[in-house]
Amino acid sequence: xxxxxxxxxxxxxxxxxxxxxxxxxxxxxxxxxxxxxxxxxxxxxxxxxxxxxxxxxxxxxxxxxxxxxxxxxxxxxxxxxxxxxxxxxxxxxxxxxxxxxxxxxxxxxxxxxxxxxxxxxxxxxxxxxxxxxxxxxxxxxxxxxxxxxxxxxxxxxxxxxxxxxxxxxxxxxxxxxxxxxxxxxxxxxxxxxxxxxxxxxxxxxxxxxxxxxxxxxxxxxxxxxxxxxxxxxxxxxxxxxxxxxxxxxxxxxxxxxxxxxxxxxxxxxxxxxxxxxxxxxxxxxxxxxxxxxxxxxxxxxxxxxxxxxxxxxxxxxxxxxxxxxxxxxxxxxxxxxxxxxxxxxxxxxxxxxxxxxxxxxxxxxxxxxxxxxxxxxxxxxxxxxxxxxxxxxxxxxxxxxxxxxxxxxxxxxxxxxxxxxxxxxxxxxxxxxxxxxxxxxxxxxxxxxxxxxxxxxxxxxxxxxxxxxxxxxxxxxxxxxxxxxxxxxxxxxxxxxxxxxxxxxxxxxxxx
Length: 512
Prior knowledge:
The protein is mainly α. The chain has 18 helices and two strands. Strands 1-2 form a two-stranded antiparallel ribbon.
């Protein structure tokens, strides 16, 4: 609890924040490890065209999903005071929006199929339309759990629902249901998530509604929704352009390469961001603590994402040949380029929430507007000149420019120098370079089978990365800081109100 602008501000304790990150990230790592095995097995069974049809319908569904809650989840997290009337008003407003989105998607399905020149898209889009209502039901409970930093409950919910859905997908795929195995798994995931969320969250809506309560949420949420909507448009533009110009088979190859490259880093970054936004919002009046927290999370994200992505660049061809079968070999050059993009996006996805939590949602909207123009143009040019490889190169060039501009704005808002930002990336990137050298040397170990050589390279890469990383953390004195942060998980409940402004020191001093 601290004083700010004459008001007493209650900040979440270090223990609570550390526990939130640990639950969110630990659950995601465990869950994605399990789900990746299932996803790989499904990819061995399904055909590229199945993934292409799934991605075609997913473009429009993702855009409607973003627009339907008009940013209420972010607005409820950011708002200082909430009461039951506000929550119920928000709930019913979002439910109405979801019904409208469902009607639009159902009516637009023939038009979407006409754009792609493939009538198989119609039933897929209409089946997906049910998702809008299911998402609306969980908007307020999700926001309340995030607001209270109760990521243990959120992580259990997401992990169990994803596991059940993936199991259904695998079962249906092995029985020949094709693209419908992917659709059924997605619908089951939303149903299970709603059931568990209402189990963990005690809040229940009543039948009160007041537009006066909704208006402040709209004032904050609409710019956030506008930015998120533009983000969805430009992040899905590559899928739309490939599907429209090159067809479902090419889109299936690209879609799998994108999933392999960006699944784990974006999942990690997205999970961290779910904790980041409420924490950033609580620190918005305390620039030093905000900057320290941002740099600490940036370093942690790099430690987690960089080794897997660069390892995938080196071992991607062998991985595809041995595990996914040769039918997926066209994904390899695209995968190598998208791995570099994925590292930039895992760091860049933190920046909009940092800027928005600093009470500058208009800046986020402006960046998304620029991206919505620049990225689709790059994708279209790439598809025209170089097919799916050209689209991936368009991602790399255009997003690099956008990332640099966003980084400069974030540094200005937090009084962080670019040198300080680069310094926090030095240790994980150095460890990754040494890991890559070890993997290349391990390729000369005698092995009779490609799978054996692949396993040896992965093991030597992991050992070298962990060894060098621990050594660098110890040499810089930050290893003890990370240990102190982990100990916060076991601190007594009576110390829960300790000032969060000490958090950057617990994780690693960045401002010196």
